[in-house]
Amino acid sequence: MALAQPASDGLPPQRAAPLRGSLATTACMETLQVGYLHAVAAAAGCSLSQPFPDNGIDWHVSHSAPGHTVDDEVTIKVQLKCTYQIPPRVPGDEAGTFAFTLDNEHLVKLARTPVAVHKILVVMLVPRDQGDWLRAGHDRLDLRHCCYWTNLAGHPVTGRRRTTVRIPTTRIFDDTALCAIMARVGVGGRP
Fold first, then answer.
1. CA distances (Å), 139 to each of 10, 11, 54, 130, 142, in order?
2. Is the pTM for the entire model greater than 0.90?
């Protein structure tokens, strides 16, 4: 009997494709990005709440820390988006941003300034093939590819119905980035 050996990346080898459910791919993408947000918030020590109705904002993320001077707990609003139409950043890519298109009505909400509660856009890039979204091993769960964030406050509407915005690839949305965002907001700054 032959035992499967882990790949050089430490993860078990890929298995035969499982029988996936019939849920629409876009619905699966929404679920995946919510799972990503939950993991980042947990690692950053943040709480999450989902507004109802959402009125164009998916999540409220709150953070308590002794360094906050504007309040003992600060909150930001997060709009999540997910796409497989944009490839992830590859080594040697010096562009530093990728284009993402928003409906103007949505951009106006995210770009409003001044605000009492800051908003950020978080865009997740995933592989086109759902079978490539994640792999589990004994010591980790690899989720592909990742989320990037930006603050669109003050961004102009330039298109008739939709506007293309640039998302910096230097702004990977992880627990360290979320803590830094909250630290800036906690002293009265912008994300």
1. 9, 8, 36, 22, 10
2. no
